[in-house]
Amino acid sequence: MASKALTIKHSHLHQPVARIARLLMRKRLAAAQALVGDLKDPEAIHEFRVAVRRARSIERAYRPYLVEVVTPKLRRRLKAVVAATGAARDTEVQLQRLSQRRVDPRPHQQPGFDWLQDRLERRLREEYGQLEENLAERFLLVHKPLHARLKTKRDDPDLSFAEVTAGLLLEVSGDFSLRCAQIRADSSEEPLHRARISGKRLRYLLEPLTAVFPQAGVLVSELKVLQDLLGEIRDLQVFGAELALAAEEAGAARMRKLIEMSLTLPREAPEWLLARQQDERAGLMSLARDLHTRQVDLVAHLRARLVDGAADALVVGVRALAQECARTSLLPAEPERADGDKTA
C-alpha cells in the first residue's frame, strides 16, 4: 500500500481537483528529491524512478487541470528523467536472471554465460556512471521550476477531486478491462505491453485513495498480482531482444578472433584448439530457450487468471469504488480537524 505521505485525506476529496493534483505531484516529486543525494545506491535509483514515474502519472491523469502549471517543456524533461534510468534497471534485471541460470551450468554453456555476464556488468557500470554524473542535475533542472509552479496558489475550477477521480477510475478501469480482454484473444507482445501500461495507470490512480477508502488498498494488492505477471513477461521480452543482439556481437567477435589466430598460429597450437572449443553461442542459445519457456508459462498463467475472471472482478471493484467516490463528492464536506488537515 502507498505510504500515507503520498495519499490524500478525507477533506481533500471535496477540494478542487487542480489543487489536490498539484499537491499529489509535489509529494511525489519531494519523495524523489529526498533520494537525490543517494543516487549511487541502485535501490535509491529504483525508488527515485518510481517516485518520478508516479508524479508523471498524476500529471497525465489530471492534465486538463494542470495545463497551466506543467508546461510541455517541463513534461518532456520529466519524461527524460524517467527514461534515463530505464536502461540500468533493465540491465540489473538481466544480470539477476543470468545469475539464477548460472547456478549449475553445463561445460559447453559456461563460455556464453561468462561472456554475457561480463558484457552486462560492463554496461551497468557505464550506465551507473552516467546516472551518477548527471541524473541529479537533470532532475533538479525540472524540479526547481516545477515545484515553484505547483506551489503557486491559483483560482481553481470548482470541480472536486472526488468527482473527477470517480470519472477517471471508470475510464481507466474500462481501458484495463479492454486490454485484458485483448490478451485472451491475442497474447503477442503489443497487447501485453498495452495492458501493462494500462494497469500502471490504474494503480497510480488507486494508490492516493488508500487512506480514505480501505477497499482501494485491496484493489491495489489484487492489481499488483496481474502487474507482476505482466512486468516479468515484459522483462523477458526485453532480455530476449538483448540476447539476439548479444548473439550477433558474440558471433562476430568469435569469428574475428579465429581469423586473427588463423593468420598467426599453426592449426595444432593449443590456443587455436581451445578457441575453437569455447563458443559463447551455446550458452546464449540455452538462455534464450529458458527465457522462451518461462515466458510461455507466464503467459499461460496470466491468461488462465484472466479467463477465471481476475481482471473482471478487479474492474467491478474499481467501479464500485468510483461510485462511492462520486457519492462522496455529493455529500457535505466534513469539518476540518485540528490536526492540520490542510493542503499547502
Topology summary:
Layout: H1 17-33, H2 42-61, H3 72-101, H4 110-151, H5 161-185, H6 189-206, H7 214-264, H8 270-277, H9 280-307, H10 310-330
Helix pairs in contact: 1-2, 1-4, 1-5, 2-3, 3-4, 4-9, 5-6, 5-10, 6-7, 7-8, 7-9, 7-10
Describe the structure.
- The chain is mainly α and 344 residues long.
- It folds into 2 domains: 17-155, Up-down Bundle (Four Helix Bundle (Hemerythrin (Met), subunit A)), CATH 1.20.120; 158-333, Alpha solenoid (CHAD domain), CATH 1.40.20.10.
- The chain has helices at 17-33, 42-61, 72-101, 110-151, 161-185, 189-206, 214-264, 270-277, 280-307, 310-330.
- 76% of the residues lie in helices and 0% in strands.
- Helix 2 (42-61) crosses helix 3 (72-101).
- It contains 10 helices and no strands.
